[in-house]
Each structure stands twice: as structure tokens, then as C-alpha cells.
Design a protein that fits this description.
The protein has one domain (about 50-184): Glycogen Phosphorylase B (Rossmann fold, 3-Layer(aba) Sandwich), CATH 3.40.50.2000. Helix 6 (about 130-140) packs across helix 7 (about 145-165) and helix 7 (about 145-165) runs parallel beside helix 8. The chain starts with 10 loop residues before the first helix and ends with a helix. About 50% of the residues lie in helices and about 10% in strands. The radius of gyration is 19 Å and the shape is elongated. The strands form two sheets. A two-stranded parallel ribbon has the order 1-2. By secondary structure, it is mainly alpha-helical. It has helices at about 10-15, 35-45, 65-75, 85-90, 105-115, 130-140, 145-165, 170-184; strands spanning about 50-55, 80, 95-100, 120. It comes from Gossypium anomalum. This is UDP-glycosyltransferases domain-containing protein. InterPro entries: UDP_glucos_trans (IPR002213).
Amino acid sequence: MLPPIYSLGPLNLLLNHQVYHNDCKQLRSNLWKEDPICLEWLDSKQPNSVVYVNFVVITVMTPEQLTEFACGLANSNHSFCGGWNSTIESISFGVPMIWWPFFADQQTNCWFSCTRWGIAMEINSDVKRDDVAGHVRELMEGEKGKAMKKKALEWKKMAEETTNTPDGSSYDNLNHIINQGLLH
């Protein structure tokens, strides 16, 4: 007989509700030290007014493509910053996305985010600054962006429901895993 399979996640939300030993209070799900200057800058902005740019761990782009992204972001007239995180964090916090898929699971995540979940839009693989600026403006100001934000908040609520209550599947599954580990 095969062992049971338990789904967990989003872990970033689930970990917010766990009780830690004092020695573990400073541990986070991020390997990088937080930059207080960046956090102060973000705190000075209105909620939901900053575009988060993420090119993931593995991205190959030409200098021309990088220039198009940079100019497009600047031309959008919206504040932006960059970092390293993933689709699950965006969904967990109700943040709609703009995709430029390149590698590994990005195409699948893009397809689901855009087509099935309604929380993202995709930039053409032949990226142009006007497209970047237009997508950012649509996401931040347009009707399609508002609809995606509404959908993203629905996904956020579902993610929270799995982690915030003892009836949530991730909350319950984590307890099953811990109890199984304690029994063996």
C-alpha cells in the first residue's frame, strides 16, 4: 500500500500561523536578508501602487530585450521594484501578474494564470517597450486589470482558507504529517 499524499500550501501563509520555539522566531521562508531601505521606500507608497518585477532565477534575454523592459516600465509612469519570488506568493497576496514566460514551469504557470484563473496577462515573446508600458498601465489602471485584481483577491481568499483555520486542507494536512512523524 502506498503512503498517503498530503497537499500543503501556500507555505508562506501556513507558516504565519505556526507556533515556533524561541530559537526559530527569526527564521523566514526567504534566503535573503531584507533591505530596510527598500522596505521604507515601499512603505512610502500607496497600497497596490508599485509594480513588482520578477525575472525569476533563470532568464536569458538580450540587451535589447532588457532595454525594452526597462524603457517600458519607465514609460508606464508607475513605481516599480524587482525581486525574487514566485507565482504562489502573488496568488497568496492577491496580486495580478504580467507574464513573459521563458523556461521550465513558466509556460504552464502563465497559461493557467492567464487562461484558467483570470489573474494575469502575457507579453508577446518579441517584447517591445510600448507593449510593456501598455500592459503595466492596463494592469494598474484599466478595466481588465481591475477584473484581474478582483479574481486575484478571490484566489487569495481561497489560499487563506486552506491555511487559516483547522478546517482548511493545508492546516489539517500539516497536522496529519506532524502527527504521523511523531508516531514513527
